[in-house]
Amino acid sequence: MAFVQNHLLLLLTCFIAIIVPTTPQPCNSYPFPKHINYAACEDLPVLETSLHWNYDPSLGIVDVAFKKANAKDSSWIAWAINPTSKGMVGSQSFVAFHTSRGILKAYTSPITSYATMLQEANLTFPVYSVSASYTNSTMIIFATFQLPQNNTLVNHVWQHGLVSDDGTLRPHSFSGPNLQSFGILDLISGKVSATSGQMHSRNTLRNVHGILNAISWGILMPIGVIFARYLKVFDGLGSTWFHLHRACQSLAFLIGIAGFGTGLYMGNHNGVYHSPHRCIGITLMCLASAQVFVAIFLRPKKDHKKRIFWNIFHYIVGYSTIVLAVLNVFKGFDILNAQKIWKKTYVGIIISLGIIAMILEVITWIYVCNKKRVKNPEEQVETSQQRP
Fold it and tell me: Residue 24 above 70 pLDDT?
């Protein structure tokens, strides 16, 4: 009787092992070789895969390990990020497979079409290392690369397929989980999402940031300088130039504060870091704040002996702000990968303002010269009348 019970128990155990699928290990419990540790990991929703990574925000460098469980030695795996769009085309991939000689090979491959054969080539961003391992039916790709534009919210895709006998990679399946293996990866929060809502929200915030700063620092402030430099020459306008200058610069400063705030928010909450652009932005805000403070609280009267030093400071800070602002707007266009029409539009605006400034420069010089000519004969007449 005991013999029969033992055999029934053995058969039942085997039956359960066959019909119940093996549950993969959670990503944070996998022991990597050489005691490699990753600060974040996420079990991906399909294809028995997980992603592990370390991210250095100051350098924009990512160490990543893409793991595929239950991988055959005749299969290939790939993980990629897409810096330009969502989906497969445009993805920059890391691939691993066993060659026909049984050697495990890892390399990079940019995907330019759906008919890709995953040919080996350089990616659009720097890759510092790529390797792979295969142990106990687990294939892992290890890679270290420079995050494009240090954008921590990225589209990513992953796949696996079979390798033919001659070592070429066969296309992956076009049904089921293989068509669901894409999503959005947040390197800061460690979240992996299959929806584009967060990406849309961040892109909207980036666009708002760009528009606010382009209008304030890049357009309104140069216009305010034009008002101050050229309109005050004409006596008939009185203090109109000053009111226009102050209104334009005040509006630009307020909008600039909003744009600066969105930039700080993205840096602190979304992990968006672009060091040169960020440093120039902080410098601009410091210069503009100093300019406003000095203009309101430390401006001496026109006949004061220290007024000349105030003027020098005002001019240097003002023109420095304009130059840095225009430079940073162009950097912003490059960071946003803005359509050429927007960049061309801004270039057109700057060129138009430059042409207007040149025309006004000529007009004001002519006006000043004529004014001096009229004034000199009058002074000569007054001098001759005063002689005995």
Answer: no
| pLDDT band for position 117 (cuts 50, 70, 90) | confident
Rounded Cα distance, 287 and 321, in Å: 7
Per-residue pLDDT at 193 exceeds 70: no
pLDDT digit string (tens) for 41-78?
A: 888 888 899 999 999 888 889 999 999 999 988 899 99
The answer to whether 245 is a known ligand-binding residue is yes
Q: Is 98 annotated as a binding residue?
A: no
200 among annotated binding-site residues: no
CA–CA distance, 22 with 69 (Å, rounded to integer): 10
Residue 16 neighbours by CB distance under 10 Å: 9
Kindly report, residue by residue over 203-245, the tens digit of the pLDDT.
Answer: 678 788 989 999 999 999 999 999 998 988 887 788 899 999 9
Instruction: Using alpha carbons, select from 143, 145, 138 the residue that is nearest to residue 160.
Output: 138
Q: Which of 130, 144, 54 is CA-nearest to residue 97?
A: 130
Contact between residue 72 and residue 82 where contact means Cβ atoms under 8 Å apart: no
Quick check: 211 and 263 in contact, CB under 8 A? no
Print the SS3 string covering the chain: CHHHHHHHHHHHHHHHHHHCCCCCCCHHHCCCHHHCCCCEEEECCCCCEEEEEEEECCCCEEEEEEEECCCCCCEEEEEEEECCCCCCCCCEEEEEEECCCCCEEEEEEECCCCCCCCCCCCCCCCEEEEEEEEECCEEEEEEEEECHHHCCEEEEEEEEEEECCCCCECCCCCCHHHHCCEEEEECCCCCEECCCHHHHHHHHHHHHHHHHHHHHHHHHHHHHHHHHHHHHHCHHHCCHHHHHHHHHHHHHHHHHHHHHHHHHHHHHHCCCCCHHHHHHHHHHHHHHHHHHHHHHHCCCCCCCCCHHHHHHHHHHHHHHHHHHHHHHHHHHHHHHCCCHHHHHHHHHHHHHHHHHHHHHHHHHHHHHHHHHHHHHHHHHHHHHHHCC
Instruction: Please tell me the predicted confidence (pLDDT) of residue 369.
Output: 86
